[in-house]
């Protein structure tokens, strides 16, 4: 007898695993596959975590987060949006917020609109909670076309998951695009979930949240990328009180609370100026993009730390297999994030040496 529930089949980690398995055999790989910052947590934030642990802040915290952190977040969110009905909840990473959001919003059979390409959890987790995923293709420019979204809306549409700056494309949605999507969701009574985990990494284009135009937007955000702490599992969600209250209830019955001592450190992190990291990635984005522009078809990424070029030959999976075998270069084939297998994701969250080696390898591969 198969002991496993049917929902286990909705998570397919084989694409990324394959890259890691191939990479594990290499002696000195050029790793441009990583979806996390290469810098460490700022020293004063690490110190705050140590002090929180030493001073015994190791029990459960309030489910919704420690008051200090919540208050700091709430004040910032209030300044940004000024919505009367916007509450905040501290979550176990942005991912934890996503799980809670889908649990409280999606009934079996409800449709969830996901833009293709997408962050891997969106379609899988929507399916796990019984949702039917409706993909809206955004190739080749990775822009959101509200008319196209409207055509995909049916009486069963419950939510739209939006992500800017985007993983894997690095594309930052413009104000008109965001406004059109936000107003469409409001008009059609669909919940807009906005994943803003990369919002601090924008290069020359201003980040715009749909919450500016649609006060019912549920925002998912996190500390992982901004402060180099993905292993700390800290995030936050904010949105209409009715939704946040239910998410708190589900957190109480699942994660219980976000890591307590690290919440104290996150409160310190909110006062840290992260602009140096952003400037570093901006420079790295320019360096890699300029080096690849004449060899690859690529949409200029204006945020996050990814570039999503088109494979110059073959499918993206074939291209990535050869990149690993011949150049020891680890990148991720687009089909991990998409129903297409035409593009591949490069992460430039890496040190200078890795980027220089990666550029050289990518130039050689393009010439084949
Ligand atoms: C778009 C997007 N959302 C959410 C996450 C998860 O972030 P967290 O570490 O805050 O759970 C990631 C991580 O790669 C991501 O790329």
Give a quick precis of the structure:
The chain is α/β, with parallel strands linked by helices. It has two domains: 6-41 and 274-366, Aspartate Aminotransferase, domain 1 (Alpha-Beta Complex); 59-269, Aspartate Aminotransferase, domain 2 (3-Layer(aba) Sandwich).
On the 0 to 100 scale, the average pLDDT is: 96
The helicity comes to: 25-40%
- The CATH fourth-level homologous superfamily of the largest domain: Type I PLP-dependent aspartate aminotransferase-like (Major domain)
Query: Largest sheet, described in full?
Result: 7 strands, mixed
Q: Return the CATH topology of the largest domain.
A: Aspartate Aminotransferase, domain 2
Strand content: 5-15%
What is the CATH C-level name of the largest domain?
A: Alpha Beta
DSSP helix count? 12
Please provide the ordered H/E string of secondary-structure elements.
HEHHEHEHEHEHEEEHHHEHEEEH
Radius of gyration: 20 Å
CATH architecture of the largest domain: 3-Layer(aba) Sandwich
């Amino acid at each position: 007898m198969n002991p496993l529930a049917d929902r286990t089949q909705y998570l397919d980690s084989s694409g990324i695993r394959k890259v890691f398995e191939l990479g594990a055999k290499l002696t000195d790989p050029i790793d441009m596959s990583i979806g996390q910052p290469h810098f460490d947590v700022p020293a004063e934030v690490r110190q705050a975590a140590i002090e929180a642990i030493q001073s015994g802040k190791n029990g459960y915290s309030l489910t919704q987060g420690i008051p200090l952190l919540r208050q700091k977040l709430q004040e910032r969110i209030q300044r940004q949006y000024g919505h009367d009905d916007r509450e905040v909840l501290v979550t176990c990473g942005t991912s934890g917020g996503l799980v809670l959001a889908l649990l409280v919003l999606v009934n079996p059979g409800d449709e969830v609109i996901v833009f293709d390409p997408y962050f891997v959890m969106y379609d899988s987790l929507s399916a796990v909670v019984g949702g039917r995923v409706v993909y809206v293709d955004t190739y080749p420019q990775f822009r959101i076309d509200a008319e196209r979204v409207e055509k995909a809306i049916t009486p069963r549409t419950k939510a739209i998951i939006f992500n800017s700056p985007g993983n894997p494309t690095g594309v930052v949605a413009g104000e008109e695009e965001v406004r059109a999507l936000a107003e469409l969701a409001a008009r059609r009574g669909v919940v807009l979930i906005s994943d803003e985990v990369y919002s601090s990494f924008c290069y020359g284009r201003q980040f715009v949240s749909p919450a500016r135009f649609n006060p019912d937007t549920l925002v998912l955000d996190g500390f992982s990328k901004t402060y180099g702490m993905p292993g700390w599992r800290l995030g936050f969600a904010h949105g209409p009180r009715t939704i946040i209250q239910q998410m708190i209830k589900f957190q109480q019955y699942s994660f219980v609370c976000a890591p307590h001592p690290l919440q104290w450190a996150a409160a310190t992190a909110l006062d840290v100026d992260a602009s140096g990291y952003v400037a570093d990635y901006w420079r790295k984005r320019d360096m890699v993009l300029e080096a690849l522009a004449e060899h690859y078809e690529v949409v200029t990424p204006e945020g996050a730390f990814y570039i999503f070029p088109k494979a110059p030959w073959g499918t993206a999976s074939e291209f990535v297999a050869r990149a690993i075998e011949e150049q020891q270069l680890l990148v991720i084939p687009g089909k991990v994030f998409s129903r297409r297998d035409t593009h591949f994701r490069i992460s430039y969250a890496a040190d200078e040496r890795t980027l220089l080696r990666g550029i050289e390898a990518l130039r050689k591969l393009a010439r084949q």
